[in-house]
Design goal:
Number of strands: 3
Number of domains: 1
CATH topology: YefM-like fold
Shape: rod-shaped
Number of helices: 4
Low-confidence stretches: none
CATH class: Alpha Beta
Structural class: alpha+beta
Strand content: 15-25%
Strand order of the largest sheet: 1-2-3
């Protein structure tokens, strides 16, 4: 994690906060000692806000997506003794 900035300092040095976010990573901003905000590069924001795929979509898009995974619904074999 990058630098931690007090809100007043971040306001007066916004250009530096943004530059540090680009170079060092996310910058934390505090107000009265409590972490309240984070400044991060747009590239990092885009990466974090990218929609996540669900499990079904993941498998559909995988190289195994064309496999027939349907269940055989025929009756069980009658010659099997348990």
């Amino acid at each position: 994690m990058g630098h931690v900035w007090q809100l007043q300092e971040a306001k007066s040095k916004l250009s530096q906060v943004v530059e540090d976010a680009l170079v060092e990573g996310p910058q934390v901003i505090t107000r009265r000692g409590v972490e309240v905000a984070v400044v991060l590069s747009y590239a990092e924001y885009a990466r974090l806000s990218r929609p996540k795929t669900d499990l079904v979509q993941f498998f559909q898009e995988s190289p195994l997506g064309g496999l027939d995974l349907s269940r055989d619904r025929s009756l069980p074999r009658s010659d099997v003794v348990l």
